[in-house]
Batch of 2 targets.
Target 1
Amino acid sequence: MGWMLIRMWAILVYIFMFLPVAVVVLLSFNASQFGSFPMTGFSFRWFIELANNEAILRAFRTSIILGGLTALISTTLGVLASLALIRYKVPGQNLISTVLIAPILVPEVVLAVALLLFLNFLSINKSFALLLFGHVIFTLPFVILVVQARLIGIRRDIEEAALSLGANPVQTFFQITLPLLLPAVLAGGLFAFTISFDDITGTLFWKPGGVETVPTQIFAMLRNSISPEINALGTVMILLTVGLPVLGLAIARWASMKSGG
Amino acid sequence: MLAPVVLLINNAGCWTLNAVSLTDIVKQFGDFTAVHRMSLDIAEGGFVTLLGPSGCGKTTTLRMIAGLLDPTEGEIAIKGKRVNEVPIHRRNLGLVFQNYALFPHKTVADNIAFGLKYRNVPRADRAAKVKEALDLVQLPHVAERYPRELSGGQQQRIALARAIVIEPDVLLLDEPLSALDANLREDMRVELKRIQHRIGVTTVFVTHDQSEALAMSDEIIVMSAGRVEQAGPPEAVYNTPASEFVARFLGASNVVEAQCTGLDRQEIVVENADLGKLIIPADRGPLVRAKGPVKLVIRAEKLALAGPGSAESATNFAAKVEAVDYQGQAARYFIRVGDLQLQAINMIDASPHAEGADVSVGVRPRDCTVLPGDGE
């Protein structure tokens, strides 16, 4: 009896969490010209309209370039930082670790305003580079956490064996450490990409005039009216932000199985 | 700058080059001294074991030879050339670790070929060398497998193959058998010695296991707390321990406080309240220089127990069996002689002596070792 109630409750919680998402996906296939119930027929109309909407396509391009660059820079910096913190003795190691992880703990609004005020103080104008810089700051901790965890699991003596066999430290990194680290690097990169792709708070503060990412574009469109296109866009976003990490995790698991954990 | 090449004459009268020379090596970690001033020469083709309990500095010494640690003081030379400033990847060493340290993402063949890539071995020759190495470790069929598909013993053979295929100047083994289970360890011990003999590579072996050290080495270096306690061939170290530590660490020994009451070129006279007076050949106590307190070392297997009716002699004494530890072909007895409790390990003839039995214990004077007392 007790278990029955708990089960029911759990199902209710899931419904509460996922029903809105399901509704958005469902309504994106609605033929009606209003973005709400009732459904009048099944159609890909809004996806086609979406594909013809210049503003949204531009926002999409911006988001993908921004997310890709964020992932690239964050994983590079994250791997280097993790190597330094785990493999070498660095003065003030704990402090550096904390500072690198801190952006997760600080509310994003505070971080956003702080960076903006700081750049104002330095008389630097908002730009795409600044937006990218901001995204790197708050995706870096995720990369570092994932990569550090994996790096701790890679035994130092495997690297020492490579050195003893004649590979110099750089060759050892590319031949041994990086391949073993790859699942974590991919996972970290995917995290960085999806977090950047999703972000709205920081982006609203940092983006230069005229540049829109997908989330800010949706936000702008919502201010005018609820177009059924937004439902279609939502569906695409869900596919990207859920599908990509799932795909990434699958690849990571496959790769780590192949390399023996 | 070229360091002078050190040539030595070995026992056979040939000119030989020391494969490894440590000269006044010291290693400190902060305030802690892991290795006190230590010098060591290892002859070409030798099998030298650094033996001691954990924390004795043996692995630190090995890692300094490997180039994974820098000595605080002193000089390390390989084949007569100073290597202190040479990084590990240019030292041409074979290194085998306790946990194999195979590259998990590479096949066995790629693992073994790894070192060949960095030695300008032509691609065509690599496959032949890999095959040769696999044959040497008797695993010719596993080339295309991944390390995780092999057993622990097989992985360790591959690690050995990977280390020797590059024809290293020195093979460094860091407790390579410790991760294996007991039966496999003995097989691998024989195997390792066979391979080392076959290729004749100078080998430095680190272990805390005395039986491995005794079985495999040309020379054993017993270390304790960062110092060399004794160095010599296995038999010498076992039979004539130079310190109480060595006596207790290798095999089971009885160490009895005694008085030296007479001393000349031939004999040392040692007296103990419970054991009486023993006259021991002087070469069994080379470190004893004066009368006074000494330590009498008697190996457990050198105390021979016999029934109470046996013939009495000067070096026999009566004892009582307090406990018996039955080991199959042998038994370890804890016997009491007056105030002393001693250990004796004897082969079992018909049946072991019973607990509580009165026995007669015999010991030959030349099986005893006399060490100076603590005061000296």
Note: The first helix of chain A runs from residue 2 to 27.
Target 2
Amino acid sequence: MTVSQVSFGSHEPVLEVKNLTVKYIGDTRSTTAVDRVSFSIGTGEVFGLAGESGCGKSTIANSIMRLLKDPAKIAGGSISFGGKDVLAMSPEELRRFRWQDVAMVFQSAMNSLNPVLTIGEQIMDIFTTHAGYSRKESLRRAGELLELVRIDSARLKSYPHQLSGGMRQRAVIAMAVALKPSLLILDEPTTALDVVVQQEIMAQIKELQRELGFSVLFITHDMSLMVELSHRMAVMYGGRIVETAKAQDVYTNPRHPYTQALMSAFPPLTGPRVPLTGLPDGVKFRNIPDLTEAAPGHFVAPVSADNSAADTAIMEGAAR
Amino acid sequence: MSHAVLSPQRPSADTEGPALEVRGLGKSFPIGGLFSRDSVRALHGVDLTIGRGEIVALVGESGSGKSTLARCVARLEKPSSGQILIDGVDVLKRDRFQASRAFRSQLQMVFQDPFGSLNPAHRVEHFLRRSLAIHRKGGSSETETQQRLEELMTTVGLQADMLNSYPHELSGGQRQRVAIARALAVEPQVILADEPTSMLDVSVRIGVLNLMRKLRDEQGISMLYITHDLASARYLADRTAVMFAGELVEEGESLDLLANPAHPYTQLLVSAVPDPARSGSYDPVRRAGLRQAVMASTTCMFDGDPNQACSAEEPVRHRVGETENSHWVRCHLYRPQAGAGGHALATEPTDNEASA
């Protein structure tokens, strides 16, 4: 598929996802949460995955980390990381792959810190378990790591509840990049934070990314935030990608009606007040076809309001 | 929905004073043990007026006291001081111990979480019917009640057959519409909406905001819209008030306020909103300067203005720009009580307050 070959710059892709299909299998029926999704992320590239709750974006992140649990099953497709097949890894390989190759910051990750251990102990854990450093060396590195995200290394002795939400989130991000992974997955990293803190954390991630050169898979429903951070992005709906292009192109010229609705869900901060319409209640897209190239590097799933043309998504309830 | 032009200031038909007035509202919560006399000041001297048919947005970060204000005004919390006037009557004096039914029929709330605010064991019809019955707004006969129910559903953009649905069968946006319909059933003059869209999916948020505007335009309901999202406040509200550490710091016509924020805290908030149109505008040096100015400004933009004297002790309101924008800002020199603002800005990474 051509889509997976387009990446930012001419670098080798770090991560390649091809035709990934994930199903949640129940006793009586099963749901396809992710449906034939393909994308790739280049070295040092920030790739955004946008969409609303339930569209399958977190399921994709969990499949890449091989964190899916029953009843979720990867039903088809492949995930390769630096040429290695992620889906075929043994438990031992997976252990190394997680955190060393790919690290993930979960939604409201700041609550994932252990309340009875100090920040320092938790960071040292990573070094002693995954990298095999001595305790003394680990402590030194832990201090460096906190300073990297501009937290005073004296805070190593603090317990999580003694830090503010923003600091905790920063600490978690520092822990994620501790072993210099080549891919960082951020699943709604700032949703639980105030705007001012959110902007500072995003700036911090950008800076770390420039410094350490890792690639990022950035998952959020906030289009403004996504366009600001990502080089390239994809918009998901009902388990399928409906549009993918350079972030700026999606921002200036969204082509899929769903992308347009997402974009206009964020009123601007400048200019005159214009009436916006989101997606009307009840509008659904069905049978979303594969992407076609609408402009160089800009892939969109074709849509039509009626069923007349073959290979186009059906937009239901649009007349209302 | 017909709104070819979104008038920034709705021509006010009222001549009989504001719909809701809050005067000098304060609220402290006791902290510490049983014998502790310490308290934390969540609200202090808040003055806020909502005209008839006006939408006022209250913005601020979490912990700034906006929800405490809403809870006090809705009488879910007992204010420590101040007055709440509806139609010029102080409801704190009128109903001293708890909110009366008369008060509830004047003011209704819409909460943040439509999943939690609707009882899962009942059908939609139950919620609306109960509101109508308790406040005797259902008319004299069953046919009238039925008609009123269907009317309510149409008003909030739902189909009448959804009256038989259970909350779990509806989407988040539809549930929030039911919550709004329930508030409307009472025919209130003021609706307090505390972050009504923050738990909804992005693509249906605008629909709920448009509905709130429609209710104002068509039924003249006044609203206090509490949010942390400046862009939606600008989109919906006629006026916006900014809250910081339990006190209002700036207020004005929404477009003017966000175009020309005068208080450093407002500037801080405005500069932090993600906006692809000005991507890469984050400047840590300017940010540190703003934080400094919020906590301890040494200068005020009105220093030396003979008409508007500054004061470090009294929260003086300076007028900003033209009078018709009714834009004011609290004097920068004014210091809130020690520690009051600490929480909101404690996230600054370079701060030295070493917690125990």
Note: The radius of gyration of chain B is 22 Å.
